[in-house]
Amino acid sequence: VAGSRFVLPTGFITVIKSLCIFSNVLGQLSPIPQVRQFYKNQDTGEADAAPFVSIMYGGLQWSFYGFFAFVVTRNADVLVLVYSNMVGAILGFYYVHGFYQNCCNEQFRQRLSVYCKVAATLAGLQLLATTLFDMREALLFCGLVSCVSGMMSAVSLLTTMPQVLHTRCSSSINLPLLSTGMFGASSWLICGFLMHDVWIMLPNVVSLVFQSCAAAAVIVFPREQDEPLLNSRSKHTEAKMVTKDVVVTKAAPSDFPVRQLPMSKQGATGGDMPDDYGSLCYQQGGTGST
Q: For a disulfide at 172, which of 15, 18, 46, 180, Cβ 3.0-4.6 Å?
């Protein structure tokens, strides 16, 4: 008796694909409040640019891979990658620009430059592969790069882990991005299993591992009780503001300024000397005839 193959209902597959698209869009929209706070405070605080660069590059990479796979294989199912990543490709530029414009920490600016150079290098290698390799081989290479970029978002949450371990506070970890990332990785893992695409399953398995490490750090090193969910003001900036307030307080004029005594007859006849006492004008006024 031949074994029958289990076939999932079409409605279930549609629901999973819809969850994948929804989770991607939700994760790509989650940094908007934080970036708006950057503009409000004119400072990026302790945040790192890695999550924003990963959203920008990941959106571009998966959109390119989905479209390229459709051209090569003519499989319309892979277009779900394009639909779910176009928003991230557009918003990613806004996030990176907002971080660069409001970043006051030179070290974080240098990190942003390194992240962008790595992304540009990966993009250049793929363009070179499409011209040198066969279409199938180039698609395999682009799938490998997409696999790596899929893990970048999860790894980006761990870039501030040394700071978390040093301060024993997880305020630098983006909680909304972590939550939506775990939900999205779980959805895409199921979708990749249904599509039998190892390039979709592998990065999401690794992403769940890294995201679990970040979630463990949030639990072990909780943020301060009254600290906001998105803290974009660095301790360095707060200390600088306090120092500025102290300087202004010291430089402020006294509440009881010294009053200058006016020139009057009482001042002249009393014990106080007028300001022009001893001058030529004073002597003439005091000795002149009536």
A: 46
Non-local CB neighbours of 219 within 8 Å, separated by 6+ positions? none
Closest CA to 174 of 281, 32, 3, 31: 31
Q: Say how many C-beta atoms besides its own lie within 10 A of residue 94's C-beta.
A: 15
Distance CA 124, CA 272 (A): 86
Instruction: Encode the chain (290 residues) as per-residue pLDDT tens digits.
Output: 344 455 556 677 788 888 888 888 888 898 899 899 999 999 988 888 888 998 999 899 989 988 998 988 888 878 888 888 888 889 999 999 999 999 998 999 999 999 999 999 999 999 998 888 888 889 889 888 888 887 887 888 888 888 888 888 888 888 888 888 899 889 888 888 887 878 778 888 988 999 999 999 999 988 776 555 555 444 444 444 444 444 444 444 444 444 554 554 444 444 554 555 444 444 444 444 43
In angstroms, the CA 254 to CA 288 distance is 42
